[in-house]
Amino acid sequence: MTILEELSRRVGDAFAEAGLDRDYGRVKLADRPDLAQFQCNGALAAAKAAKQNPRALAEKVCEELRSDVAFNAVTIAGPGFINITLADDELARRLGAILQGDRLGGWQTPAADKILLDYGGPNVAKPLHVGHLRAAIIGESLKRIFRFAGDEVVGDVHLGDWGLPMGQLITELKREQAGLAYFDQAFEGPYPDQPPVSLADLERLYPQASVACKADKARADEARQATAELQKGRPGYLALWKHFVAVSREAIEKEYQDLGVTFDLWKGEADAAPLIPEMAADLAGKGLIEDSDGAQIIRVARDGDNKKIPPLMLFKSDGGVTYGTTDLATIVDRVRSDNPDRIIYVVDQRQALHFEQVFRAADLAGLFAADRLEHIGFGTMNGKDGKPFKTREGGVLRLREMIDMVTERALARLAENGLAEGYDDAETNDIACKVGVAALKFADLSNPRTSDYIFDLDRFMAFEGKTGPYLLYARVRVRSVLAKAEAAGAGAPGPIIITAPEERDLALVLLGFGDALRAAHQKRLPHLLCDHAFSLAQAFSKFYAGCRIADEADDSIRASRLGLATASGRQLDLILDLLGIQAPARM
Ligand code: ARG
Predict the structure, then answer these.
(1) For residue 281, how far is its CA from the centre of ligand 1 (angstroms)?
(2) CA distances (Å), 394 to each of 387, 389, 454, 547, in order?
(3) What are the average pLDDT values for consecutive 10-residue runs of the chain, which has 587 residues?
């Protein structure tokens, strides 16, 4: 149980004692930390329900709590808020208990799920861009948070490999190299093992095709037709498509690696394609499919919808499938291969309507219950102009360029701050890359998921404030304190005793980890963990400034302070790991 869960139970008992519902005993962190550590506002609502005087009722509850030695002070503020402060011994005892194991008080879910986590969503042949950045960063962190809390997670990249861009590429390549066997309907194979295109070719062909198709309807029709033929299994197109996927995937994997993002599955939209005919027959059998101008649709609107939810298009009039069709068939595939309890999609908020349609269709068809399908949407990373971030030249920024850019900026910042000096070039570069990526990831994660934010490298990269570099620096400082203490023969960390306000504040923050993790997990909000990490780094910094550590004369106080420092370092390390942020060993 977390500290708030335990206190809520304890205060709930006191309410029950007074003949009231124990749920009124819910305790939270105090709004005014200068007055108390915790507070419970339940007496107000309880008094209203029981038609009693709130202060008198709060007094009754407080009376009960005051008999408990675990509390140092239980007071009433205003109309009936109950303020609670723990006894130092109790704080120290609880902290000691959570420092015993590896979880450091990290909350464990009472209802573990098997989660299929869909994040990343890059598209074949299109370079990864900042739009995919947040999915990867947030998804990686959620995966780690879920796993640490006890859920089983299967992470799937879900490549975009089955849509119109594939037909656009096929037709564009045909214009350049019509003689290739892939385009010859009479050719019976086998097709060459070597790809006919390089990554550079793909990155040139796709934008070329996309521009041409926008400008010329005939070209667009041609691409659509090629897509439909590919989807129906034309052998030459399939063989060509396999090359596109392989070439592209290799590059995508490398970029994710640099970002510290990994997947258990590298499936794509196309993996669900073979299941579509069977699924369509099943849906037709259930009477869910309607004909609409030659296309086949599933109506998903409901009475009482407050906005218009258009039907999901299963087949276009040319027989081609849509993004909705593959997402629906992917659910069928996931049920068969992994049978998850829950499927969670970490995808741009702008796709909310698409997921609403898919979830409703899946539910209607009995494929998967809608309340176990979650779209975890996020806002966009914008440029200073408030529009989705672009490079100076106006194109989408590639992930590779982004990583180079943050690394370069980190090198400059490290030099300005006199850090990473005197190390060889390889290590300096590695440190800069880690600091740069940490700055980017932390900036992304610390921003509430659903809000947009502005890309501001100077702010992300600052060594002061709520930033990645500040946390990495705090971590390095904890380590150096401990290393110096060891070198000075300061002894081993020992049991925690509270003798100074800085120790008390730090202990309280350390103890709050369980609640931060619980909230981050339950709300799918990694920024709550970022907030905790920042509070911890700040509390450590005040502790370090206000208390002697290695040179404290009193043996048991020194041992306790070493214990607090060790705990701070371990908890920071653990949180950075849960955020998917890699820290350099030194800076
Ligand atoms: N490939 C899509 C895109 O670039 C994202 C895929 C997200 N996952 C999903 N199951 N639809 O927008």
Answers:
(1) 25
(2) 11, 9, 16, 52
(3) 96 94 96 95 94 93 94 95 97 94 93 97 84 93 98 97 94 96 93 94 92 95 94 94 95 91 97 96 97 96 95 92 96 98 96 98 98 96 85 70 92 91 93 96 96 93 95 94 96 96 97 97 98 98 97 97 97 98 91
Q: Provide the 8-state DSSP code for 192.
A: P
Kindly give the distance from the C-alpha atom of residue 343 to the centroid of ligand 1, in angstroms, as a whole number: 14
Which is it for the CA torsion 118, 260, 527, 352, positive or negative?
negative
- How far apart CA 416 and CA 517 sit, in angstroms, is 35
**Superfamily holding 3-86:** Arginyl tRNA synthetase N-terminal domain (3.30.1360.70)
Cβ of 118 closer than 6 Å to ligand 1, yes or no, is yes
CB contact set of 40 (below 8 Å; sequence gap of 6+):
8, 11, 24, 25, 26, 27, 28, 81, 82, 84
CA of 123 to the centre of ligand 1 (A): 8
Residue 475's identity, in one-letter code, is R
- Nearest Cα residue to atom 12 of ligand 1: 121
Contacts of 294 (CB under 8 A, 6+ apart): 317
Half-sphere exposure at residue 412, Cβ-oriented, CA atoms within 13 angstroms: 9
Judge residue 138's burial from the number of C-beta atoms within 10 Å of its C-beta, 0-12 exposed, 13-18 middle, 19 or more buried: buried
E strand or H helix at 458: helix 457-460
Residue with tokens 């029950």: 16
pLDDT of residue 335: 98
The dihedrals phi and psi of 37, each to the nearest 5 degrees, come to: -90, -40
Ligand 1 centre distance from Cα of residue 170 (Å): 21
> Which residues are CB-neighbours of 198 under 8 A, at least 6 positions away?
247
3-state DSSP call for residue 26? coil
* Any atom of ligand 1 within 6 Å of the Cβ of 158: yes
Rounded Cα–Cα distance for residues 145 and 151 (Å): 9
Q: Give dist(CA 135, CA 121) in Å, integer.
A: 8
Distance 340 CA to ligand 1 centre (A): 19
| Nearest atom (ligand 1) to Cα of 351 | 12
pLDDT, residue 125, reads 84
Its pTM stands at: 0.95
The phi, psi pair for 340, rounded to 5°, reads -75, 160
* Ligand 1 pocket mutation pick from 124, 129, 133, 158 by most atoms within 8 angstroms of CB: 158
User: For residues 330 and 324, what is the distance between their CA atoms, to the nearest angstrom?
Assistant: 10
Spacing, Cα 323 to ligand 1 middle (Å):
8
Q: Which residues, at least 6 apart from 166, have a Cβ–Cβ distance to it below 8 Å? A: 124, 125, 226, 227, 230, 241, 244
Each domain of the chain, given as residue ranges in start order, spans 3-86, 164-258
Peptide bond before 190: cis, by omega within 30 degrees of 0? Answer: yes
Is the CB of residue 121 below 6 angstroms from any atom belonging to ligand 1? Answer: yes
Return the bridge partners of 85, or none. 73
